[in-house]
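[stage:ingest] chain + small molecule (NDP)
[stage:ingest] validated
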Amino acid sequence: MKVLFYTPQSDAADWLRDLSRALPEADLREWQPGDDAPADIAIVWRPPRDMLAGRDGLRAIFNLGAGVDAILALEREHPGTLPRNAQLVRLEDTGMAQQMAEYVTHAVLRYMRRFDEYDLQQAQQRWHVLEPHPRETFTIGILGLGVLGAHVAKSLVSLGFPVRGFSRSAREIDGVVTFAGLPHDTQFDAFANGLKVLVNLLPHTPDTHGILDKRSLSKLARGAYLINIARGAHLVEQDLLDALEQGQISAATLDVFTDEPLRQHHPFWKHPRISITPHVSALTLREESVVQIAQKIVALARGERIGGIVDIARGY
Ligand code: NDP
Ligand code: OXD
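[stage:predict] done
[stage:export] tokens:
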């Protein structure tokens, strides 16, 4: 079996080493511009169009991430880029759910216990006790109840927070009040109504583009807190800046941005109520990912069904 690999990141050699150990029978090579020799499987992160276009022999494309928006954007911009018979397969968890739960728990507790405000007080050498947020009414909403969102929701339930969740199809999770619908429909509004914290874990698709806009933010409780850890294109940046200015949102933690790295002089960098991390809320863990991909490649070769196949029309 011929396997093509590509990542624009600097750790290609580590991936190739680990993949060749996990798939000793495979004929594995790193794609280089101009390589149009046949391949059965591609393992990629943010591949260039030339790597995939015209590769009709490909049976599966494994994406080295949970989000497939970059690959599907290639197909939208240049229809026919994705080989017609290739299944697109994304990572399922591989250690990301735990990382997301840690990230969100940290951000929520920091905000709820007002540690960010105590940091500011410390800088002014100010000794002043702030009124705590009552836990019973500190309702947290999770947009997206998939592999990552469901795990985050369960972690927050275990800490005793009231939790709501929103997904396209109906989901049941113990302790979570769930809503099913599409962005901006009546179910969405019922989900968002009065939330103290909104966490975004949706995939980026044409339906969810710009979902964190003025309208959505206005449904939350006054002074709510926003955590965006999915994709920058979910957020209408100016709407967040306006909502912070007006006090509708009191603070935001952002891990993802429309343009990454976040450009110098972007107003988010120095905003006193925005916390920024550089797209690290859940890193792709190589060891776990190699194991999952190798198992799925073996299963496909045996004609077995695998999980994580992307519905291209749906966009995730
Ligand atoms: P899943 O596909 O498992 O879950 C997606 C969830 O979103 C599902 O519950 C789905 O509904 C829901 N959904 C999708 N479209 C809509 C819609 N239009 N309206 C309402 N609900 C919708 O994805 P994961 O949980 O694995 O990952 C989520 C995203 O997190 C990724 O796509 C990626 O963008 C982001 N991510 C970010 C990382 C980071 O480091 N910042 C790392 C990893 C992922 P249903 O259940 O009905 O299908
Ligand atoms: C992913 C990511 O989608 O790293 O996995 O953002």
